[in-house]
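Hi there,

I know you've been waiting on this one. I reran it after we fixed the sequence typo, so this is the corrected version. Both the input and the resulting structure follow.
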Amino acid sequence: MEKVDLTMLIEKSQAESGLVFDSEGHVLDSHNVSNENNVSAMISVMATMSDELLQDTMGAKASKLISLASESGFIIINKINKDQSICLMTKDLSKANFMKLTLRKIVSK
């Protein structure tokens, strides 16, 4: 996959904010995210822990998608490749499935 156009992805998915980060948690691009470096680092740790959990429990090599939901909003993290991931966020839970579908279409290209 080529470089991600985060602005286009946020528009198409109807997310409110998002970021692209590398496997070390360094921000490559962000839109409307406060404390983007802290958020990216936390997500990177979660992704690593998810990979280890899936490997230990299911023998899976790596997680592709992580989603978190609360009454305050929805966060979806999707790996682009082994070196980069995308995180999209919204406070509107009704957008969750649309965000997932949009990411699936973009990442599978």
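Quick highlight: Helices lie at 6-13, 36-58, 96-107.

Best,
R. S.
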